[in-house]
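Input (Thioredoxin):
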Amino acid sequence: MAGLVHEITDKNFAQEVAQSPVPVVLDFWAEWCGPCRMVAPVIEELANELSGKVKFGKVNVDQEQELSFRFSIQSIPTLLIFRDGEVKGRQVGAASKSHILAKIQQSQ
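Output:
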């Protein structure tokens, strides 16, 4: 993962997400998913703009099937917004930067 967007796995989920002192946005995605590739640059932009206030991570659904199952991911891209280790928001499908930002703000 590039820059401020971290790769999240079952092994680092507790440390990176559940115990995070700031809200976390997880992007559930896959290499073969066209809409996921459209959302990726938006996630990078938001990660840069909200650095220190919100943490961003990506979960590859092909490699992390356990996490995908745990959070009932049935379609990608899906963004989950966590605060204090709990899901506070969900966005299924590609969305604009302003829509994703609004979802993050609603979930805080």
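The radius of gyration is 12 Å.
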